[in-house]
Amino acid sequence: MTANPLDVAWELSPGVALRPEPFGALAYHFGNRRLTFLKRGELAAVVRALAAHPDARGALAEAGVPAEQWPAYAGALRGLASADMIRPRTAPAPVAPGTPAKTAAARGASASLARRFEEGLAAPICLTWELTYACNLSCVHCLSSSGRRDSRELTTAQCEAVIDELQAMQVFYVNIGGGEPTVRPDFWHLLEYAVAHRVGVKFSTNGVRITPERARALAGMDYVDVQVSLDGATAEVNDRVRGAGSYATAIRALDNLAEAGFADAKLSVVMTRENVSQLDAFKAIADARGATLRLTRLRPSGRGADVWDELHPTAGQQRELYEWLLRAGEDVLTGDSFFHLAGYGESLPGLNLCGAGRVVCLIDPVGDVYACPFAIHDTFRAGNVLTDGGFAGVWRGSELFRELREPQTSGACTGCRFFDSCRGGCMAAKFFTGLPLDGPDPECVQGHARDALAAAGRTPPRPSQDHSRRPRSRPVPVRIGRRPSPDVPPARACAESPLAGFVPSPDA
Ligand code: SF4
Ligand code: SF4
């Protein structure tokens, strides 16, 4: 754009929603799925006022922005236009506004954005919803110990009520997972229901139901993103962790999506000791299919607790990953899950804080709300959507969430010069390795957790629940050849079919 942004008549782009927040507002573009933070109340007020004025100057005046700050706002408007959050308006402005008045938002003090996030938002940015514990696979590191469905899982009508509430709270999108969410008979209905109610859906799948026909249907839908899980760039590495045949299933799903013209699917990888050396190969798999690579951290949650010692990247591999991520920049997504690597010196893109209960939370298949998808344990259960005033009641009223939104102390990380960026790392990783929550992350790159991890008497808590298909009296095997033979008959029907015993609700 060559014109001065202050001279342009703007409006919000179609498909962009603004959600008021204590720091200003969040803007979400349902078309390109970009999330933008309007970090000051004044800027949010200006953006809201744009459509009512013949140029941006009128909106700035209405929001009470002093004239000497207008050049800075011109830059902000240019940035919003480049992200397609706002567009030049062709139709005339509606009725001229009355006397300029500074809005409440514009009057608000602008504390630092990180501080605002720590205090919690009006609704989560990153809401994960596990629709079922049923899964056709039994990955050794499954964070929710999935396998068998739970007979108390929310019915179709209850799920619809949750979506209605998310729409009312302006939750822009929800990350749907499981288990394998697509094995729920009403999954595709719930997907369409959410989209029709302006709640975008990103769903994670092992690919089992992404047929060519389904891929074509998904390619024709707005507001849907698909994330296919793969934990090895070769079948040998992947299938050791995710089970025999799972590599082929995932690649087929990615191919089906690419051939159907589905734009920008995600290839989702949990980083382990076995696959750090395959980072370039993962990127190549994604690039070849027009997909984006998304890397996440292995946490010792769910069945991951059993294999964490064996599978979490070594110190040398953490460094390798960090340097690779710095080189990749914003081309590779990380879900903000590697901010503990900031202890090497430079922060990676993202919020760089533990968002548990502040900007992140989980609804599990039975409607329990936890502070984070990696913290499925009674300690982090904030309430239930059926009994505690709905999701909004839990998000706004939970005592646990109130505590998590209190200022945190640096505890044993006091004195570490990287605390401002690393923040002591991941709460769930500390909890499930039996380390104090106010101490260093178990993978502290400065080595400050080494002694605590080695200490005798450390007792990591066991998960509060387990939906694994095989009873787990001992750690889940990881190495080739130690998986049970497919010739051995299952101990129970549900070990063969994750849906055994599932009776769809009448409205499914
Ligand atoms: S507990 Fe860990 S995974 Fe969960 S929000 Fe905090 S840092 Fe992220
Ligand atoms: S001591 Fe704490 S703040 Fe410092 S790098 Fe380790 S985990 Fe991060």
Automatic annotation (TrEMBL):
TM stretches of this protein: none
User: What EC number is given for this enzyme?
Assistant: 1.3.98.7, 4.1.99.26
Pfam families under this entry?
A: MftB_chaperone (PF26520), Radical_SAM (PF04055), SPASM (PF13186)
Which residues lie within the region annotated Disordered?
A: 454-508
Q: Cite the CDD domains for this sequence.
A: Radical_SAM, SPASM_MftC-like
- Where on the tree of life does the source sit, at the highest rank? Bacteria
Q: What is this protein called?
A: Mycofactocin maturase MftC
The cross-references to Gene3D superfamilies, in alphabetical order and at most eight, read: Aldolase class I
**Reaction catalysed?**
[mycofactocin precursor peptide]-C-terminal glycyl-L-valyl-L-tyrosine + S-adenosyl-L-methionine = [mycofactocin precursor peptide]-C-terminal glycyl-N-{[2-(4-hydroxyphenyl)ethenyl]-3-methylbutanamide} + 5'-deoxyadenosine + L-methionine + CO2; [mycofactocin precursor peptide]-C-terminal glycyl-N-{[2-(4-hydroxyphenyl)ethenyl]-3-methylbutanamide} + AH2 + S-adenosyl-L-methionine = [mycofactocin precursor peptide]-C-terminal glycyl-N-{5-[(4-hydroxyphenyl)methyl]-4,4-dimethyl-2-oxopyrrolidin-3-yl}acetamide + 5'-deoxyadenosine + L-methionine + A + H(+)
Keyword field: 4Fe-4S, Iron, Iron-sulfur, Lyase, Metal-binding, S-adenosyl-L-methionine
Quick check: keyword Iron-sulfur in the entry?
Answer: yes
Domain annotation Radical SAM core: ranges: 121-331
For this chain, one GO molecular function annotation is:
catalytic activity
The source organism is Thermocatellispora tengchongensis
Query: InterPro entries, from UniProt?
Result: 4Fe4S-binding_SPASM_dom, Aldolase_TIM, Elp3/MiaA/NifB-like_rSAM, Heme_synthase-like, MftB, MftC, Radical_SAM_PqqE_MftC-like, rSAM
Known cofactor(s): [4Fe-4S] cluster
